[in-house]
Amino acid sequence: MRKSILLLMSIMVIVACQKQSNINKNFNCNIENHKDVKQYTDFNKNFKIKIPSHFNTSLYYNSHQSEIFTADTTKQLSESFILKTSFNHGEIDFNNDFYHKTDSLIKRNNFELVSSKNDIIKEKNAYWYVVKGIKKEFTYHQLNLILKLSTNTYFSATTDLYGENNINERICASLSIFKTIEFFE
Q: How distant is the alpha carbon of residue 24 from its chain centre?
């Protein structure tokens, strides 16, 4: 009997660990783990992320933020995505002022808001949105994700997608990389 309970609890833990996040559900993402990954830590040692080793990746930092840029340069731009992850110093609150500034930025860039949502991601308050427009003469989609980490720090991730093909699949591929992020506290 004791072994049965232990086995049942183990199965429940495994299933719970593979549960999709709300953002993954929104885009109908299957849980995907990339193989042959390389782990990167940002310059300021605020977070680490696992990126497929064949992606072209670069790091950048200044006094206010630390960034990691990555893209699969073995594919055409319209078949891949560009992912920028950034740990930022500064206050951010998901309030009316924040939403107004976000809407103004979207309009200024002549983008159309496709979807948006307040969410809990990685156990943090988050807001994400997808926009669509034209950039560099290509149809363009962008997923923006912001997580409030503390009173004076936040994390942002941006996925740039050019073209019209496989938008959800490419968003899901970027989210599968995003899920590997671990924050140092």
A: 10
